[in-house]
Amino acid sequence: MTERPMFDDEDLPSWLVEAGITFAGRRARVGASADAPPWELPQRSLPDLPPPLPAPEEAPPPWATADSLPAAAAVDVPLEEAPPGFQTEQPDWLLPAIEGAETPLAALELPDAPMPWDADAPAESGAPPDDPFSDLDWMTQSPPAADQPASPTFKTSWLGDAMLPDAMREAAESAAAANLEAVPDDWLSAAETPSQQPATPTFKTSWLSEASPTEAVPEADSSAWDVDLFADSAPAEMPAAPLGSTTTDDWMRDFSVEDALESDPDPTAENSPTLPTAPDLSWLGDAAMPQAAEPLSATQSADWMRDFSVEGDLESAAPTDADWLSKIDLPTGEDALTEVAAEPASDLPDWLSSGKVPDALDDLPAAEPADAMPDWMSADSAPDLSAELADLAAELPNASEVPDWLQTGYLEPRTESAPPPTPAPDLSADAEIPAWMRDLAPAPPTPSALTGSSDIATSGMDWLDQYDFEASTAPELADIPKPSRAAPRSANLEAGLEDELDIDALLAGTDVPIASDPDLLPVAPINLDEEFDFDTLPDLPPPSDLTAHDIFVDDVLPADVLADLPPPAPATPPVKPSPPSAPSAPVKATTEAAAVSELPEWVAEMRPDSSPTLMIGDQQVTLEERPLSALPEAILALRERLKQLPSAPPPAESKDSQLSNIPEALQPPSLPITPAPLAPSGALATAAQLAGVQTLRKIAAAQESILKRRMETEASAPPSLKLRARFKLDRLLLTLLLVAAVVLPFFTDLDALVPPPRHANLDAAGQARFAAVSRAVSSVLDGSPVLVAFEYTPTAAGELDDLARALLRDLLQRGARPVILSTNPSGALHAYHVLHQLSLDPAEMQLLGRSSPLVPRRDYVVLGYLPGGVSGVRALANALYDDSFQQQVIFESDLEGLPSGISAQTMPILRANPVFVLAQSQDDVQTWAEQFHAPASAPSDAPLRMVIAAASAATTTLQTYATADPQRILGTLIGLRDALIYRDLRDQYADAESQRTAERRWQSVGFTALSAALAILLGAAFGMIRILAQRRRAQ
Amino acid sequence: MTTSRTPRRRLRLGAALLAALTIGIALITLLGLEPAAPLPAALNANLSTLSQLLIQLVAVIGAIALLLGVLNLTRVHAAQLRKFPHGIYSLILLITLFGVVLLRALERGGVLRVGTGDAPSVSLTVLDAAQVAVESALAGLLFFALVYSAFRLMRNRVTIWNALFIAALVIVLLGFSPLGGATFLPSVREWLLNVPVNAGTRGLLIGIAIGVVVVGVRVLIGRDRTFRE
Questions:
Q1: Shortest Cα distance, chain B CAs vs residue A304, angstroms
Q2: Nearest CA to CA, how far is A1010 from chain B (Å)?
Q3: Assuming Cys at both sites, which of A501, A729, A871, B92 could form a disulfide with B58, CB separation 3.0 to 4.6 Å?
Q4: Can you give the pTM of this predicted structure?
């Protein structure tokens, strides 16, 4: 074990220093006896021990005087409420022994030395300061001593191997029972056993037989070990085997007998359903050890003495039984017997001095074999804990140094020496508890019969009065770590939390912080999906202050409405909290959760079989129940805190309720909200946040007003007008302007404003383009078929039909037979329609020099749809050179499925004549310009040529390809203007009227374009003026 | 120490075959369109023939796809008939479809013949009266919408790009119909179309060509996701 000089030796109490229990001395002893077994170490003389005490008959021991005894028995626990270990009536012979153990402690005046646990306090070790249970965590998880073993097992097999000599072990193995009977008989015979024997159902004393030094000290008598026990204030040299108890409860062992009796960790723990296990205080073995350094009577030799003898190894050991009586077992060690023999009879208790031994010792079980001893007792080197024990003994009674965990957890400090009045149970609340729950509920703490009937409480245990062992587990408000935020604390915060508080009010108050002080720090939003430390929640006003204004009004109502509200009534003073209806068990929430899971079977059967199901519309949501133990500790802590608050009085049950006749039915809670002035205590928002809230409210109000006005307008409007689009005056005016521009040229002469396009007015490049197209048309052989691609849909018919007619008219005039195809199905049909309309027009036929209309498949051929898009154009080019299946598919039949009359012999003519392409978009131009190529196997001197007539939208693409490959793209025509020019160039007007009509059409397009340009300019000017005006106003 | 490795994608046999088939056809088509000089002339001729056959197959398959499209359109709109408020449009479409088919069949069978000549007058008249007129009207309405949008373009924001757009639009429109035969605006218009607009168009076309090349290379090396998965 690591040596930890907690403080200097001069801080030790005088009696410990006089007894030689100092840290320096301990170090010297350990160094000297590191290699020697304990029993081989020389007994240290104790010249400074107190003088022998008088026998009980002559004079009571000094600690049993009336001055040193406490006035009241603070741990007066009834017999039936005590733990199992206490559930036997204690004999009278035992009580003086217990009293005697308390006396030296009560007489101590310990220095204000730092507590060992203070050195390992959570706040100093990096534990979260806001966690109220952090101190408990470090207590339970990491014992104060870093080198403490964590194993809770308690083994005793090592005892005979390591601690006892071979002779003793052999004796114990061979005739353990006999020796056990023989040894106690010596001193038991001299003892006077009371008539009332303590029941020892769980009193395992097998170690007695194993450790009884029958052979080593056969001559030892009771007086000898009794005297020596009192003289042995430095029990480091004492063999631990006779004194150990393997059946004590851990808390009992750790607190030693005195502490166990006085502290009573939880009298109701065994009966409470929420307290299945006693608190883990095993590490407190060190803290309890110093008391063992006092002169003790033989009857008080508890397991702490065993720890004392083994020098701290017992710190890691956990009890295997709850029999506390094993702690006060009579010592049977060799040294003890020897020293008792030397002790004057006046120092012995009366029952010992009378030579009577409790009969319970006769009922001791047979000795167990030596190999059944615990391992910890077989440690090679038993470190000396005397110094630490002394230190702890000096610190324990100091109530002012009690750590927080003792105050908030299991031990509650009292401010006055007198025990506080026991809170009266809330009968009304208790009446609400069902009978079965009342059975399961922990019984109210009552004085222990064991300690209450004795005078032990008066034997110098005043400091224990400062601890309320009946206090609840939940820490008091003052003990809860404050939030790290610098949030102001409400004046009546504590009263508020102790008042009647509803969970909804609490959550509402925390979720909707109300700000009135801009200096306050903002509150971080709470995300309940994440783990949240509820202890860091901002302080809440008391429920009496949680009014409708606090929770709802300020967030819902606008400011003007809020101002119209009547002034709230003055706040009612906080009501003092009523005592809890049932004593809460001093355990953590997780322990309670575990206890809930251990409810009786009949209780478990009352639980619903299926999980609760929620119906949200047509959605069904099944809620999965989770045990309390699965909840985070923060939630459980909040739950515990809320449970400590008294519940509101049940509302008057309505007779109409479905549960009116069920007395055990749980009534719905009520949230009393009384008007109160706006308390600034809950103000936790900044001015910026308030401004943002106001802005959001304004936006919401504006949106709501717009929606309301729209709804009113729609409701008042006739049904026929509800779907009408919003009227826009500028759009109407613009539409009227454009319509007038379109129509006006047909009713007036606008030649001066929009002159018709003339070939003569074109520049040289323009005239060259038309010349190239004319040459390409002229190159078509008379009567030869020529391919014309109608790559436009009826959408572009208004622009490209004139071009198509101009080209077709020119080709027909040349005697060529147009072979029309299209990669668009509608394009082929539209081409058929254009030629059909052209043939039906007599003026057109007259212009063509024909007396009869055009006949399909003779004068022209409209081929079927050319599928494949880009591949179709490529396939067409290949088909012109290859007498293959594709050629037959493309040229064999026309649109109506009739034979087109085009054969393989026609292909060279088609290849020689240029292809006239009427393209609507850039893609069409790109497809034909890139894909209509002769195959690689074709002779290079006969390229496929084309003339592309495109819409204005494809002007740039067409010019790009025409400029790049002028050898293949012979000429280009673009839009209506080039159509008119081409007609004028090729003299395709039948008469002047037709020319005038065509020119008016052009003037309509031109004038509309002019009007559109002016309108756009006007709109841009208005827009710029408006923006400039806005900027000027803004400046 | 573990090293991070890219998870290997499981190779599927179907995807591998599809990728191999695609790569092979692409190579054949490429060599058929542009014969490689190192290769024998006979091989190039065969590759050209095979390439043309593949392209013809594409055209035929395109025709079949059109038929399948018509059938699918019929099925979808027939399913929409159950939804009465919105199914009315599907009903109109199906009536028009089957009406045109019936009209064309009657006309082709000689039952319905209007006027003299061999041209299907009824079908073409219906086409002109319905499709051409409607589509032309929609194109005309688009003109009003575009002009109104340009009119409001600078109402809310005035930026340099908005001003440039407005300026180019006005110049092209005014150059399209020169006021009083003025030659200045048409000259500006021609310059705009021949220099900046033509340059931009060339850039677009070059970018498109590069994209096509990249896609072709990805197909050839089997990296195209379409043929890999």
A1: 52
A2: 6
A3: A871
A4: 0.46
